[in-house]
Amino acid sequence: MFLPPRSRARFYGRSTNYQGVLRDAVLGRITEGDDVAAIERTLADYLGVRHAVCMPQARVGIYFTLSELTRRRKKVVLSPYTIHDVINMVICAGATPVFADIDRATCNVATDEVARLIDDDTGAVMVTHLHGLACDIEGVTRVCRDRKVPLVEDTSQSFGARVGGRRLGTFGDAGIYSFGMAKNVNCLYGGLVATDRDDLAATLRDELRQLPYTDSSILLRRAGFCLTGDTITSPLFFGAATYWAFRYGYLHEVEALNKRVRGEDAPTIKRTIPENYLRRMTPMQARLLVPQIPEVDRLAAIRVGYARIYDEGLAGIPAILTPPLREDGSHIYLNYAIQVKDRHALLRFLMTRGRDLTVQHMGNNADYECYGEWHRDCPAARATAGQVLLLPTYPGYGEREVKKNVALIQEYFRTHAAERPHDAAGRAPVASARAATSQRS
Ligand SMILES: Cc1ncc(COP(=O)(O)O)c(C=O)c1O
Fold this sequence. Notes:
Elements: H1 16-26, H2 35-47, E1 51-55, H3 58-69, E2 75-78, H4 84-92, E3 96-99, E4 102-103, E5 108-109, H5 111-117, E6 122-128, H6 137-147, E7 151-154, E8 162-163, E9 166-167, E10 174-178, E11 191-195, H7 198-209, H8 216-232, H9 235-251, H10 255-258, H11 283-289, H12 296-314, E12 320-321, E13 336-340, H13 343-352, E14 358-359, H14 379-385, E15 388-391, H15 399-415, H16 433-440
Parallel strand pairs: 2-3, 2-6, 6-7, 7-10
Antiparallel strand pairs: 1-11, 4-5, 8-9, 10-11, 12-13, 13-15, 14-15
Helix pairs in contact: 1-8, 1-11, 2-11, 3-4, 3-7, 12-15
Bound molecules: pyridoxal-5'-phosphate.
């Protein structure tokens, strides 16, 4: 038998957030105050940019930014390995997605692919810094400068990461951040566009000025959802009840349970921006952000510490493709995303042995039928989409839990010798299974 594990995920933010939401709701103050302007100044300082413009969600920031940048030239070169609503935002902006294949190790777009796909009709390149890992931002910035193409960074999963002392999201024309529930800064819903461009900031502000605030009832429902999530994933409750339900759901394929914890639904195309996306962040949400910003770097350092333990234990196993270990602040490991050929066999083993983990549900958008008219063959994204398993790194997870994951994964690969290794580039090996086995022993 085993002691129940900690949950695979926890929300960021503080318990006092709920008091803040409740107080503002009771006093009717959700939309009162100039806190959005104040947090925009704080965030502009933190990121080191001229303008920070709050958004109702990151995806809306992507929509407005790309609408502006692709007025004349319509193509947007981007990674196909991201949430599908990002692709929808490109389409809603009236632009054409051009899928550039990824680098397997970081799961982020490959610079040489970007360079190859830029042409005279490219209005923007949009990179993603997925799982808290910086893409090759210096390389892509050079390419975009040389080719005079605007660069947008989807930094939704990497708020606070730095390359060469500069925050991700500030290398190009615009950086977009998410403050949604599952992010390292959480104000229920929310996002930000950071830019040094006065013209872009002015356009974004003009667009937002006309919009209503996010509905209080939606925010209250979200807060209730978050509070329920916090409660059922708190260590005591989780160990006593939630874990067993998640485990049963996974091991017995109970869709009604599994769909509740799945990050992504089946993709559907949107061609016009949904009316309910067109909202403004409320002052109440801005107030929730205030105490979180000074904590971002400290919490990132804890995640990097966990990444080091995962790396020490797993990077030497040929059948696992691990993310690069960087401890200079450029990789802040929102999760530690490993890639394994038969990830469900491994996950089954781990769940059976008392772990609570999940696969990454994000898919390769370049292959989805609904985006068929923009299909491009992206073999690395296709392989990655079927192989990513997310290992937790949230600060309260604890080194003991990280070490248990490592020990069990090591045990799995010791006892399941038929798992085939990745080659250095993370591609499926050409070697036979027998050669693969001998390579490991
Ligand atoms: C990589 C990426 N881009 C964009 C988004 C959209 O963020 P939001 O939910 O704030 O619109 C997400 C959200 O999960 C994301 O993971």
